[in-house]
Amino acid sequence: MTHTARYAAAVESAIDKLHQEGRYRTFIDIERHRGQFPRALWRKPDGSTKEIVVWCGNDYLGMGQHPVVLAAMHEALEATGAGSGGTRNISGTTVYHKRLEAELADLHRKEAALVFTSAYIANDATLSTLPKLLPGLIIYSDELNHASMIEGIRRNGGAKRIFRHNDVAHLRELLEADDPAAPKLIAFESIYSMDGDFGPIEAICDLAVEFDALTYIDEVHAVGMYGPRGAGVAERDGLMGRIDIINGTLAKAYGVMGGYIASSAKMCDAIRSYAPGFIFTTSLPPAVAAGAAASVRHLKTDQERRDKQQLHARILKTRLKAMGLPIIDHGSHIVPVIVGDPVHCKQISDMLLEDFSIYVQPINFPTVPRGTERLRFTPSPVHDPKMLDGLIRAMDNLWSHCALNRAELSA
What is the band of 256 on the pLDDT scale with cuts at 50, 70, 90? Predict the structure, then answer.
């Protein structure tokens, strides 16, 4: 066997393992059409097409289709062209990037904001850079934090402590065990996207004050969605001023692309100056920054859209519960239905798509623990009652067809 064949065999073995475990991920080729969301066109492997309804998108509020957003992007595209032409330090800072950061700082009532190419990069770059700014920093991280937070903390070279999910008592034990003089930071999320549960923000803020720790919250699944101006769960609960660093995305409820942190002017300046993930990355295209700014601005006042989304989520959960399907309901906009087996999860997803024109992606390990494989529905304000009826009928049919458990999970 040649050395190239040996490597190719190892790669093939790794892929085969995913197939054997039933968790090989397949891309679904879909085409969104302006003004038609959540409808889309599925382009099948054989080249034929079929209209489907998307039930698993992260464009939670349909802002990716909003005329205000599209108009801003068209205007910026015509004015500036396609790309930004460089990193933020080398010709890649434009008036559109500055406007977007000003909108985000205003949204979170912070002195400043710093935009990255994604929220993943924002988390990774910020959390991996903080120990350079705060020598001896200890980061306390919720065990279910997003992969981007885990990665940033893992490779920052500093000390870390992992506390059990949402377990404030365990967090206290860890804080008490460390040197009171050591700088500390607690990293957690406002909404954990796989179960849709909320982080204990106020209790964590209280501990941060008691132990003189900074607070770092990931509001990725909450920005645009919660609070009177869409600033997230911390705003909804009146706690935003107690958070030191807020991470958010522009690619979910805001419907565009990019990520950011919002914090003090000095903190944003330090991350800007020290984080390789910011320094060495070409900035967002101006048209993308313009669209994101328009979306953030619009959702500061569009409470009706948020309310309608929450209503549709409640209706879906109520109807799934009425059929005895095992859903997890923590009161957020995320609707997970537990299948509990990767093969069945993929089969149901495939049948929903092929037989009922409903697209919901199976979620398997390592995104969720083995045995908790699920379908994760994200109803939007623009899913209409007919679409909802079709989904309920399809789920009822397939649950019976596959002889799956109807005993409801506790929240």
Answer: very high
Whether residue 67 is preceded by a cis peptide bond, meaning omega within 30 degrees of 0, is no
* Closest to 336 in 3D by CA, of 293, 298, 369, 307: 369
C-alpha–C-alpha distance, residues 117 and 109, integer Å: 22
Q: Where are the domains of the chain?
A: 29-58+303-409, 67-300
Contact present, 88 and 244 (Cβ < 8 Å): no
Largest CA distance in the chain: 65
Residue 55 to residue 166: CA distance in whole angstroms: 28
Residue 101 parent element (H or E): helix 95-108
Q: How far does CA 196 lie from the centroid of its chain?
A: 11
Specify the 3-state DSSP secondary structure of 307: helix
CATH no., domain 29-58+303-409: 3.90.1150.10
For the chain, report the end-to-end CA distance as a whole number of angstroms.
Answer: 53
The SS3 assignment for 54 reads: strand
Cα-based distances in Å from 223 to 63, 255, 267? 13, 11, 21
Q: What pLDDT score was predicted for residue 25?
A: 81
Choose among 218, 232, 250: nearest CA to 332: 232
Indicate if 386 belongs to the active site: no
pLDDT(405) > 70 = no
- For the segment 225-250, what is each residue's pLDDT rounded down to a tens digit? 999 999 999 999 999 999 999 999 99
The topology (CATH level 3) of 67-300 is Aspartate Aminotransferase; domain 2 (3.40.640)
Q: Cβ distance 257 to 250 under 8 Å?
A: yes
Residue 404: pLDDT band (50, 70, 90) is low
Among 44, 110, 132, 252, the one annotated catalytic:
252
CA dist list (Å): 344 to 69, 96, 291, 338, 339: 39, 46, 39, 11, 7
